[in-house]
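Worked example 3 (structure in, sequence out).
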């Protein structure tokens, strides 16, 4: 009887040992390479944590249906001119926001300005800090929203409403503006053109309203 009990005990130990060994094999960790895999032309240095910076230039992506007619309709002023003066202005009595005053000598005008005259606008300083800036001597074509109740304005549709003008008087379009105006019969596909073409495009857009 004792011998049979010993055999049962040994058989039980063997069975438990086999089960434990099988479990360990199933749960073995994956093989780890002794050296990290390095792709040609890619640095093997550790990649630091990504920290997203605060963009200083607002990004405006035209939504479906946005185009030149929408830009024209939203604008209270449309003119081309040269920046002549920039002044930071403290908050006015009864207000809590600082502003920036920008003055322009108007060279060509479509709406809300007179050629040869001067236009001065006020912009919330937060917009200036986020990218809607100017510098003295800069030549621009602007689509500006109508003044707010406290007399502030900004570019229509962000950077879409701010176009550069070169020394010869031609208007220069960014890739984003070309994409936004691609369906316009006058402006479509052009990256530079005379101010007169913009005036024509505005007339066409206003007639279609």
């Amino acid at each position: 009887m004792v011998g049979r009990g010993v055999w049962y005990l040994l058989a039980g130990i063997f069975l438990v040992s086999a089960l434990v060994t099988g479990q360990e094999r199933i749960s073995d960790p994956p093989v780890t390479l002794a050296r990290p895999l390095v792709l040609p032309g890619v640095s093997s240095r550790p990649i630091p944590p990504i920290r997203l910076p605060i963009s200083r230039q607002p990004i405006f992506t035209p939504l479906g249906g946005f185009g030149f007619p929408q830009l024209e309709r939203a604008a209270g002023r449309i003119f081309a001119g040269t920046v002549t003066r920039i002044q930071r202005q403290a908050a006015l009595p009864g207000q809590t926001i600082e502003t920036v005053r920008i003055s322009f000598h108007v060279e060509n005008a479509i709406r809300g300005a007179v050629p040869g005259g001067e236009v001065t606008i006020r912009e919330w300083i937060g917009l200036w800090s986020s990218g809607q800036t100017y510098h003295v001597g800069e030549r621009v074509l602007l689509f500006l929203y109508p003044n707010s109740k406290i007399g502030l304005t900004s570019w229509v549709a962000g950077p879409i409403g701010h176009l550069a003008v070169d020394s010869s008087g031609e208007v220069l379009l960014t890739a984003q503006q070309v994409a936004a105006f691609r369906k316009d019969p006058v402006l479509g596909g052009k990256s530079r053109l005379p101010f007169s073409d913009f005036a024509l495009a505005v007339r066409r857009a206003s007639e279609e309203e």
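Notes: DSSP finds five helices and seven strands in the chain. The radius of gyration is 34 Å.
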